[in-house]
Amino acid sequence: MSPELARFLQDCEQDFQQALPALCQPPGSDCPAVPGGLAEAGAYSLGNGGKRIRPVLCHAAAAALGAADRTRSAAPAHALELIHTYSLIHDDLPAMDDDDLRRGQPSLHRAYDEATAILVGDGLQARAFEVIAGSDVLDAAQKVAMIGVLARASGMQGMVGGQYIDIHATGTDMDLAALQAMHQLKTGALIRAALALGGIAAGASEAQLRALDDYGRHIGLAFQVVDDILDVDGDPSALGKTGGKDAAANKPTYVKLLGLDGARQEAQQLLQAALTALETFGASADRLRELARYIVERDR
Amino acid sequence: MSPELARFLQDCEQDFQQALPALCQPPGSDCPAVPGGLAEAGAYSLGNGGKRIRPVLCHAAAAALGAADRTRSAAPAHALELIHTYSLIHDDLPAMDDDDLRRGQPSLHRAYDEATAILVGDGLQARAFEVIAGSDVLDAAQKVAMIGVLARASGMQGMVGGQYIDIHATGTDMDLAALQAMHQLKTGALIRAALALGGIAAGASEAQLRALDDYGRHIGLAFQVVDDILDVDGDPSALGKTGGKDAAANKPTYVKLLGLDGARQEAQQLLQAALTALETFGASADRLRELARYIVERDR
């Protein structure tokens, strides 16, 4: 990772650490306060951040389009992380993936209780749309476009649909096409939305949005292929979670279908395709290029 | 109930029965299909409609402001019912209120499974914001205003916050002020949002929105007071659910705090206050006036 990217990720994380937990306690005397325990539980999940890939991609997409700073991509970036965090909280529930740990900490329903985890997830989803609607630097047309993209990407024809397929596919056979289709919904749709939202924030043309989407489609799949590789071949202490879980749960994975070497080749091909999608962009897209490499070469 | 109101409710219900279940299977070749089982489960909940108070109030508020038909209030009305339906699905879960029946039918996690119920709820919430963003008869500023109101009303400082307080208050003592504060969040906020969204759809002034909100605040509380009365004094076959459940769960209720007669008086006073709030409106608000009476005098 270049010093520039490291610095950029650090700057982003500093903002996320400050801004995201505070979103659980919205200011304003005209609206009632969030109940204390609920705000605290929400802040617990938002503060325990992971790679923050989605909001970082959103900012990097805006930069690729010439945005001078993160001002206009801040609201959509925060909204993306709110949606991603709510989905992890609900995915960890006993009725879903039943995970006791998330990023090395007790998952929310273990740290609090199941009802709180369900409600925090529901509340973070609403807050995501509210954050975009309430931005004072985006115009109404941009907000509507972003909300439409984010709702579709995270809804039944996107992330939620992918999770539904995943839950019901465990223990069944799935070929490569079906596996890819599931991941395009489960993780791919929100990653593509991250690129679209950054592009909209910076006034991208239709052609530029298509190029960003093409990039997002490939790195979204690459992200999942690498996740599958790390589950088999990763260092549990770096991952902050137990490895080998997919195989134990008899989940369909890229490694299962392609073998470890085949999966590594697939990740490299997806990386190349993502870089090709950015060919028409100049040096302003270098951060997106480096993020693609980071996603494929990461060890956690 | 007047024949006019009965006809209006019937017309609304006909639209809801047709439009709402179809929202689980959004058209458009550019987006992936919703997985079949997920769409079916969503349609199950949306088709098994209750009183549809919120979308009906939204349409009636638009009519009070002079809207000639339901065209411009359709998207927000559908969005309100999507939010309400998702909240019922999640409230019924074992970790929350643990209800096996909803409107005389198995609740969604009983008819399907818990994971499906969590995911359908999540997906319906996203769809609510998508429906408003995607409307082709509202302008962008109206959509943004509606989405902001709906997200706040349904989020942690609204409906979700109220449900959090309710879940954690069962078995504890709560005085009248605390009970009202809880219901203003749990059910009141979304009912007030229904009025605001109908008002925004019809181009209401600030003063008109305040009057609608004042009306909504009072009927929202009245609605809950009557719910508490019916739980003690209602006909289980008309209600489609088991009565006496609140007392059995040792939940704080208006009847417990005010007695049955005191609760009936409270409902009448709230009805009068709601009607007073509409004083500056002419005959176009008669539907809202009749709905207020219907809410207080209903038997289910």
TrEMBL record, chains A, B:
Its cofactor is Mg(2+). The keyword Acetylation does not apply. GO terms for molecular function: metal ion binding; prenyltransferase activity. It holds the Pfam family polyprenyl_synt. It comes from the Bacteria. GO terms for cellular component: cytoplasm. The keyword Nucleus does not apply. Keywords: Isoprene biosynthesis, Magnesium, Metal-binding, Transferase. InterPro entries: Isoprenoid_synthase_dom_sf (IPR008949), Polyprenyl_synt (IPR000092), Polyprenyl_synt_CS (IPR033749), Prenyl_diphosphate_synthase (IPR053378). Belongs to the FPP/GGPP synthase family. NCBIfam families: FPPsyn. This is Polyprenyl synthetase family protein. It comes from Mangrovimicrobium sediminis.
